[in-house]
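Quick start: read one record
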Amino acid sequence: MNRRLFLRNANMAAVSLAAGGGLLGCLKRPVGAAIAAGALPVNLPETACRLPRVRVSPEREIRTVVGLRPFRPSGFRVAKEMVGETAVVHNYGHGGGGITLSWGTSKLAADLGLPGHVGPVAVLGCGAVGLATARLAQEAGFEVTIYTKAMPPETTSNIAGGQWFPASVYDPDKTLTPEFTQQFVAAARYGYRRYQIMTDPKYGIRWMRNYFVKNQPWQSPIGGDSGLIQDLLPEMKDLPAGSHPFGTKFVRQFDGMIVEPPIYLPAMLIDVRIAGGKVVVREMKSLEEVRGLREKLVFNCTGLGAKGLFGDEELAPIRGQLTFLVPQPEVTYATSYENTYMFSRRDGVLLGGTHEMGDWNLQPDLTTKAAILAKQASLFDGMRDC
């Protein structure tokens, strides 16, 4: 996820108008013991002092993966069109905000397609967006079948950091329509609240403190770079020198949520099936196949697949590369530093930061990996208790 791009997005007027003793001392038992017992760890320390340090080294790598974010410069698409006698509601093109905005854009799509419809519903795609759409249709009382080329853990959503943060959703240099900015803010707010009621170990969702670290002073005041979404980033403040372990660097913190895809996506799929949903592994290769479905309301959640299936030429990949280190259960926070970032999840410590527009290559780049590891090592090796 490219946080600098997100902050530029959020600062635009269009969006604004529409849109460690501190930690360990709070625990009565070690974080690792809490996780082993199935409980959520305490993630919001009283202070940043004595944060557990991430141990970054090539020897601790357990995997490196590449994912392609489905990006549209004008933003995600939630719209309805008729394909013969079949109503198709599009819900794709989320860029780096797919997991973050999945519930919100699915709510927009459901509100657009479900009223007045009678009969079963089809959902194309089984990633975070498709699963959220399916659940909302089920909650509204509809029979749902998901048609999908791939299932978890083989979906694009599985190769995602999972932090709740609407980043790289649209081109910040592009003039956005009032309709999209309204959709963007509505989706962000609904998704933010939906995830709050799902902070259960079975979904892999928990609150997490974020530290944005810079070598130079912040150019924007508190709240100035987040527009009207500041209420979705609670506890946002600048930390004075001596109150954090990052030495002379400049630190801004806020609280958010982390959604761990290896846990969340299977749990959502179970929910769909418990509610009577069906899953058919079948790739839609033409509009004729879509028209031939028995369901006459189809939600298109195919991500990059919509480029070929529905001819969306605006859709393009943003390549992202992630390296995972051996898990450190004691590390429950996240950092962003010089266009790289770290999230600590149960399946490993995730390091990322790449943002390569138009690149379809799914092979990891060793030079990129080495650069990210070096930058992250410089940050964490320099940490000192305060």
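The two ends are 29 Å apart (CA to CA).
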